[in-house]
Specification:
The protein is of the alpha+beta class. 37% of the residues lie in helices and 35% in strands. The chain is built from five helices and eight strands, in the order βααββαββαβαββ. Strands 1, 2, 3, 4, 5, 6, 7 and 8 form an eight-stranded mixed sheet that branches. The longest helix is centred in the middle third of the chain and has 25 residues.
Length: 192
């Protein structure tokens, strides 16, 4: 593995377990594939890499395996655009009489070990480090349609997004409370 500075994003559907109880398995797979298509398209548009799918969750990276200039900003803008895309997706779902799908997002930046991990029989590229854990835990605390970002990621990339500082969060497995911001949308460019 190689130590690199990365930005990590986790997304996760809110109320997924309840949703699966009310939805036929084939309809759930169709909905998940539509959801993943939206998420992945936005991540790719902002030069991110999808690390893995975990049930209804997506883990994405900026800064590895390919270096991305201004990675934290691109990750934050991707999060804003994911939430916008979910609003449009839900408008279409409502026309078909289907319930809305909401996602929570967590983002952190920092050093992580990047490389291929696994066994001699199967390996996958991934990252491991505190920023991965923090992003995952922030995602678990984000409410429906909310993006929570560590202060470090916000300070590195928040120049184009509007955020509201939140109370520090006590996150499972992390000893100190984590300062964080809730991303509200894109900042309007100033008039010349």
């Amino acid at each position: 593995g190689e130590l690199r500075d990365v930005t990590v994003m986790f997304t996760d559907i809110r109320g997924f377990t309840e949703l699966t109880e009310k939805t036929e398995a084939q309809d759930m797979v169709r909905m998940l594939n539509e959801y993943f298509e939206i998420i992945v398209d936005v991540i790719f548009e902002h030069e991110g890499t999808v690390d893995k799918f975990m049930g209804d969750a997506v883990m994405a990276l900026w800064g590895t395996p390919v270096e991305v200039p201004d990675a934290p900003r691109k990750a934050l803008e991707a999060a804003v655009n994911i939430q916008k895309a979910m609003e449009a997706f839900n408008n279409l779902r409502s026309i078909d009489g289907l319930p809305p799908i909401y996602t929570g997002i967590g983002i952190d930046s920092g050093e992580a070990v990047c490389g291929y991990m696994g066994s001699t029989k199967t390996m996958s590229f991934t990252v491991v480090g505190d920023c991965v854990n923090t992003a995952s835990r922030l995602c678990s605390k984000a409410s429906a349609g909310q993006t929570l970002v560590s202060t470090l990621a916000y300070e590195r990339g928040g120049s184009s997004v509007a955020g509201v500082q939140q109370e520090p969060l006590n996150l499972k497995g992390i000893t100190q409370a984590v300062a964080n911001w809730s991303i509200e949308g894109m900042l309007q460019p100033e008039e010349p």
